[in-house]
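Exam prep: given the inputs below (a chain plus guanosine-5'-diphosphate-alpha-D-mannose), describe the expected output before reading on.
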Amino acid sequence: MKTALITGVTGQDGSFLAELLLSKGYDVHGTIRRSSVDFRERIAHLEGRPHFHLHYADMGDSMSLCQVVKNVVPDEIYNLAAQSHVQVSFDSPEFTADVDATGVLRVLEAVRLCGLEKSCRIYQASTSELYGKVEEVPQNENTPFHPYSPYAVAKLYGFWIVKEYREAYNMFCCSGILFNHESERRGETFVTRKITLAAARIAQGKQDKLYLGNLSSLRDWGYAKDYVECMWKILQHDQPEDFVIATGVQHSVREFCYLAFKRAGIELEFVGEGADEKGIDKNTGKILVEVSPDFYRPTDVVNLWGDPTKAKEKLGWDPTKMTSFEELVNLMVDADMEKVAVERVGDHVRTNLAEYLEKGIVK
Ligand code: NAP
Ligand code: GDD
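Solution:
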């Protein structure tokens, strides 16, 4: 039985990866942070299961990381923990650098200090945000990086320190340069989930309007459950190498929005341009989507489009056999329609969140 350690197991990807590794017969250990709220929504169904263990550790705390690596003695580490929100990284740049850049170094050093550098394989959750202000489309492993946010700059350090430890110490450590991947478990302030939740709430009369930022931004969106399989494949490969994982298909935020509302039973028509653009309900003429500059970023990445040829050739990644864009939108909307249906009107936490999102207080 192999032993895996997942940092960030409570996150979207961590929860899917834990399920995958358990299904493959791994002993799975995950790191969690102390929180005043004990309920860990995405992994609640796994807690208490045999071969699933949790440990306290923080990416900002070397000692906690060393201790967990020493106690678990993992064969594989999946380093997913990060401050993962690009817009938040402009508000908390130092925290983001500490967790997303220096945190990677702490994991690598923990492995060395525990004498596991020959036996432990390490996956680093790298990102298409490294391409940032893109220098070519589509982007592959040879495309120059041009990070365009504090988050991306921190992740760039993570990418290079992993490469450095691979070359300097011959460690099996690799980066997956993953393009955006979403799911029904996606954090509620990322654009896709914000849209699917709002579409569900508006369709059920629980929200009036959705405010978004740049509707023309382009992303290569896939399904998170498909992508965690690639993380595992990257560590099973015979050589430690970095891989782009993407669908190879690009869509705009506007398109995502249109399809999500359609699935919720509302046909939108977009009129106007830039900050004046609006999404209007074709049936009622009501304005349901508006642009709010609150959601513009100081520098925005607007043209991500991945070329996964290397992963196709070496890992057998076949995006045509995976969840399509339309299927992704539909499964997210369907899940949120169910979730919103049981939301109590008196549930002040939810109600406040919807209101805060709408007014732009929370991004
Ligand atoms: P996510 O849902 O935001 O999960 C992030 C995880 O990191 C959570 O478990 C979080 O714990 C943990 N974390 C944050 N700060 C921490 C700290 N200081 N110490 C320990 N743990 C900490 O992110 P995701 O979408 O699953 O993404 C997983 C990884 O892939 C991230 O590194 C992200 O940057 C990267 N990535 C994601 C995408 C994507 O499209 N999803 C694409 C490329 C790369 P709490 O639950 O306690 O907050
Ligand atoms: N969050 C958000 N909210 N984004 C909006 C909004 C809005 O109201 N309106 C437009 N957008 C645009 C953003 O400006 C961005 O161009 C795009 O939608 C996607 O934003 P996010 O969903 O927040 O994701 P991201 O692409 O910035 O970052 C995600 O993907 C990266 C991989 O490329 C995160 O998961 C990162 O952790 C990940 O590395």
